[in-house]
Amino acid sequence: METPSYLVETYYNTDTQETRTSSNSQDYAQTGEIIVDTYFINQFDAGQTLMTISTEGVYTGSDFSGQILDFSRGRVLAKDSDETLSESVPVFVNNAQDVLITSDGFDGGHELNILIRKPDSLSEADLDGAWTIGTATIPAVLYESYYNSDSDSNRSATNDDFAQNGEQLVDLHRSSEFESFWGGLTISSGSFSGLFSGSITPSSLMAIVTPDDEDASPMTFSINQNKDVMVYTDTDEDSESIELVILARKPSTLNLADLEGTWRVASLLIPVELKESYYNSDSGVSRTGDINDFATTGEQFVDIYYTSEFETEQGSMEIDASGNATGLIAGAFTVESDNTLTFTDSEGSAPVFINASKNFAYNISLDSQEMNIHVLTKVSSNIPDTFEEKVDVRLVEVDGETVITLNGGDNLKVVESSTLGDSPTTWSEVDSPQGTSIVTPSTSGQSAKFYSVTPRTDETD
């Protein structure tokens, strides 16, 4: 699934008749300007597609292809045929090698992907049992409301529209609401009940889910080879939203020691709270409201902004036998009586659901500020003993382009030097965004370089 990364505001200066756009969501209309349009820099999008991977590591889909270049401790480096090596991102695979996850930010957007290896066979009985379910519904369209002072009329349009003569933008509102539900399902003989109810039928090694709700359409779920993870994602044209649904078969038993080992994490954060700013030219008073607000008499709509940012994260997490987690996400797990998990960190507690194989887990949470989607894959039952094993630095060169891959990019950096030595002044960080797991050294004018991985807290920061 894919989201934009920010809003763009379009201003029109009534004095100079010039138009200005701004990608700063907290920019304001300047003297003589009015907002005439606001739109997402990219589209919300979600869907499912089939991908085939050959024994040589070549992958193909309906409109893409590429090559797997490296695989180590659950981290896959792959490159699409239409991208450079430095544009590729790691893909994390669980130790059963039937669930892969990745998240990434790109120019204008962010994305989260879950890849599922199909089972060799699938029957109705294979689906029977107790499952957990988590859902996310994300509004994909903003509607703009315009007021025409000449005709004293209102008009509503999608955010690809523009104010017409005599019109003033007075409000924005979503096409639908954010929603998230989680709970339990019991599947038996082609029917399911619990948080939702309906029927489920195997078809072409996938599962067709039909909710009892007469307004709901059938959904086609991908199911993994171990038949304990199901995923559905799509764009709902009727509600103008994108949807994600994850199911995990509950383990028959669960202890904190089952979590021990190295996990990979991929996440997507979507801001929820939108603020609208109004300025009253008669009184000189500014006012800020929420997305359900509307300009009142004498007010001009001067700004709209999110209170947080669209983000993705990916990296490593180590969990000990007592459920304590360190790495990209730090906190502690506890086991609940229904064989689900609760994760607690400095910001609070959240439910986490794990599959029967105990190598995939997920959380979907929603509050007034943001929606968070986290997916985790277990790489190994062992926690790395050494720094080298934990970081797992790899150098990959393809077609004359070189990248360094490593784990823990949020806490570590790659530094380079023309000479070996302990003096920090001879080492400088390879230019790359903090948190990245792929670092691309520059080879311009260089005959040789030495590279090292070091904590970001050292004196060479």
List keywords for this structure.
461 residues, mainly beta, 39 strands, 1% helix
The number of E-state strands comes to 39
The SS-based structural class is: mainly beta
The rounded distance between the terminal residues' Cα atoms is 35 Å
Kindly report the spatial arrangement of strands forming the biggest sheet.
1-11-10-9-8-7-6-5
Major sheet details = 8 strands, antiparallel
In short:
The protein is an all-beta fold. The protein contains 1 helix and 39 strands.
Task: Give an overview of the whole structure.
This protein is an all-beta fold and 461 residues long. A hairpin with a 4-residue loop joins strand 27 and strand 28 (324-327). It contains one helix and 39 strands. It has an eight-stranded antiparallel β-sheet with strand order 1-11-10-9-8-7-6-5, with no helix packed on it. Strands 12-16-17-18-19-20-21-22 form an eight-stranded antiparallel barrel. Strands 23-27-28-29-30-31-32-33 form an eight-stranded antiparallel barrel. The protein is globular. It has one helix at residues 387-391, and strands at residues 2-4, 7-13, 19-22, 33-40, 52-53, 58-60, 65-72, 75-80, 90-93, 99-106, 109-116, 129-139, 142-148, 153-158, 167-174, 179-188, 191-194, 198-203, 206-211, 219-223, 229-236, 241-249, 261-271, 274-280, 285-290, 299-306, 311-319, 324-327, 331-335, 341-345, 348-354, 360-366, 370-380, 394-398, 401-405, 412-417, 428-429, 438-439, 450-455.
